[in-house]
Amino acid sequence: MNLTDPELLARVQALEVRLGCTFAEPARAIEALTHKSFVNENRGEGCSDNERLEFLGDAVIDLAVSHKLMALCPEASEGKLSRLRAGLVNEEGLARVARGLDLGGLLRLGKGEERTGGREKSSLLADCFEAVLAAFFIEQGFEAVLQLVERLFAEFFERAREGTLEQDYKTELQERAQSLLHAPPRYRVVHEDGPDHAKTFDVEVHIAGEVYGQGSGRNKKDAEQAAAKIALERLAVAAEPNPAPGE
Which of 161, 195, 210 is the C-terminal boundary of a domain? Predict the structure, then answer.
């Protein structure tokens, strides 16, 4: 692998800017960004894929998130902490962070994987993020990892602190809508904005043909949850008994 290649150096420099660090071993950063499909199609380059780093990164992210959750939720049981961590450290959650860093644009993919939209696949993005975090850990140490994870997962940690991370507004709305209106909620994307790696979605939720809420999010799932939360608030107001005259 030619580490003087301007294209490779540009990838490393872009990753350093996004992480806020400098890699003493640029080859490690390149390894973290290299999918096995690229290695399979470029055997003569002497490059390695990111699967070994992904293995380490999986353990590093679990430890870092567990450490932060224990500090945020000192009264939480082991079971609750495990559920909170699962809500953070899953394929979609990791892929969302990877999209925020635009790791898809830095991935080295084989031509076949490129043609099938590999840069947007949640599984590839989550794996790449774990590999990048492992490379960062080897270079910078665990304290730096804790700071990086705290920054990248700030929104998730805030929801954990507020106790809303485990809330499923869509399920609750489904039950309430059936009970009160005898009709299921329907969700519709009404607007998309931004580049592919940083899109925002606006979603409306309809019940019995009427719009009950609209929400926004960085993916359709989050936008639907936001819309469902607003719809639940409206249903709660509608269900309140009207005061008797003179009260």
Answer: 161
At 51, give phi and psi (nearest 5°).
-70, -35
The parent domain of residue 189 ranges over 169-239
Tens digits of residue pLDDT in 175-197: 889 888 999 999 999 999 877 76
Choosing from 31, 49, 58, 204, the catalytic residue is: 58
Angle at 226 between CA 165 and CA 231, to 5 degrees: 120
Catalytic-role residue among 102, 130, 204, 224? 130
CB contact at 8 A, 76 and 60: no
Binned at pLDDT 50, 70 and 90, residue 14 comes out as very high
Task: In whole angstroms, give the CA distance from residue 222 to residue 227.
Answer: 9
Pick from 161, 191, 214: which residue ends a domain?
Answer: 161
50 has pLDDT over 90: yes
Same domain, 205 and 156: no
Please say if 58 is a catalytic residue.
yes
